[in-house]
Amino acid sequence: MDATRFLVQATGSSGTITRLALIERGPSEQDLAAIVTDILKRAGYQTGDFDVSALSSVTLQGYVVDDSSSARAALEPLQTYQPFDLIESDGILKAKLYSASIDLTIATGEARSAKDGQEQPAQLQTTRSQELDLPREVSVDYLDPALDFQRNTQRAQRIASYAASLSSIRLPVVCPAQKAKQIAERQLYRRWVERSEHELSLSRAYAHLDAGDVISFSGQLMRVVQINQQGGMVKTQAVPVSSLVLSSLAVADAGSGVSRDVLALISTTLYMMDIPLLRAEDDQPGVYVSMSGVDGWPSASLMRATDGINYSVQDNMSLPAIAGLSTTMLPSAPTVYMDRTNSVTVALLYGSVSSCSFVDLLNGANAALLGDEIIQFQTATLNADGTVTLSNLLRGRKGSENAITAHAVGERFVLLQNDTLHFIPLTLSDRTRTFYYCAPSVGSVNMITYSAAQQITDFGAVQSSVTFMVYQLSARYGRGAFASAIL
Known about the structure:
The chain has five domains: 30-97, no CATH class; 104-246, no CATH class; 264-320 and 421-438, no CATH class; 323-416; 452-486, no CATH class. β20 and β21 (312-317) form a beta hairpin. It is mostly beta strands. The strands form nine sheets. Strands 9-15-16-17-14-10 form a six-stranded mixed beta sheet, with no helix packed on it. Strands 22-23-26-25-24-27 form a six-stranded antiparallel β-barrel. It has helices at 32-42, 71-81, 177-193, 243-246, 358-362, 452-459, and strands at 5-11, 17-24, 30-31, 50-51, 59-60, 62-63, 84-89, 92-97, 104-106, 125-128, 135-144, 150-157, 165-174, 196-203, 214-217, 220-230, 233-240, 269-273, 286-292, 300-305, 312-317, 323-326, 344-350, 367-370, 373-382, 388-394, 412-415, 422-425, 436-438, 467-474, 478-486. 11% of the residues lie in helices and 38% in strands.
């Protein structure tokens, strides 16, 4: 009809019009201010209660809110996409983009304010998070328009670091691969830059400061994150400001993709680990579980059944474990000193491993399950074929000495990390029972329509119920055991 609307009609077999629909074209991009405005109004705010005009220059192609949630939860992914603060100032909510533009310069002597009779504090009190608490890798899952809006993943990794944890961000935003890569890089840098938190003690002369303001103090740029006014003092907490957090020049592409109709689902590899106790809080009957998959793994659910048919969800896991299998056999060795003679080579399904210092090794770094033995490795050497050779080993850790002599080629390898290691509690009465476990990837449920015409062809009439039997087929062994259901 025009540039923004078009008419669709459906006709029957006789050529008569059976349905008309007016379709309005949506804008290809929407500015961030409009989306934040919509969320705030849905939360009960009126137009005069907020000012988000600072976000008008930021655009995005789409944003999905697929479940009921608070306004805060709906805004947090947008603050990841484009960092901004939403603060209360002058009686209204104001949006302020992260920047390096200085709002106020504070003289060095102004940061030692104290109440009468009290000792002056240090000019700058700094708290710094330890490196092992920071992420080595940040991954961002997003909706990629180049892949028919399927979920894609971009990663940023810090190489020269002893940090081992992984951070996964599920971003329900439509954006190109390069933008997602830049978000991952900015988030990684932000975690490391903001590991230091500063506190300044200011007088009431600085009561006009707002969270989100950028201050310059002793040659350092800081962004105010919290202000506490008490007893005439303005306690200000701030984090460093870096250009690496504000912008990124990272490049990426979406990779190759296929039509949604023929997209192969990424399967989940499930690791059930009946091993000695690893954490004090797990001191009860149960089993450790990790999951993994190749790049693009969408997360999975752990399901359990007592009969192999009726499964119920036990847990959900969104972070893949660094895992794979051994390509060589690890020989037996003593446990009382480091095994510097033997090594084992592993092929990783996902992720990477790195060497660590001897001190970090003694503090628990690089713990892994190989077969049923818990080992620690100090040295990880990348081979030309992509496998990794692990050496300088501590053997039979956590009471797994009995498994030292039971190694074989092709056994499981799982890096034991808190964020990918889940504990599934059981009861003492479960000891003699049989349970069936599976881990379907998210999106693995396929809907199949059995039409009336197909039923008539198969049975001669439409059926009130149909019994289905599902088999797993193997090119080598043929048909396996079946599961049945009545629909």
